[in-house]
Amino acid sequence: MNISWTLITRDGSLHFCSYVVVYFSILFFRYQAGHVTDEMLSLPQKPFILIGLLEALAAAAGMSAGAILSGASIPILSQTYLVWQLVLSAIFLKRRYRLNEITGCFLVTVGVVITVASGTGAGASLQSTGILWPLLMIISFFLQAADTVLKEIIFIDAAKNLKGGSVDLFVVNSYGSAYQAIFMCLLLPFLSKLWGIPFHLLPTYIRDGAACFLNMGSLSAGCEGAPLLPLLFVLVNMGFNISLLHLLKISSAVASCLASTFSVPLSIYAFTLPLPYIGVASTLPPGFVAGAAVLIAGLLMHGLPQPENCGESQE
Question: What is the C-alpha to C-alpha distance for residues 311 and 41, in angstroms, rounded to an integer?
Answer without folding.
Answer: 37
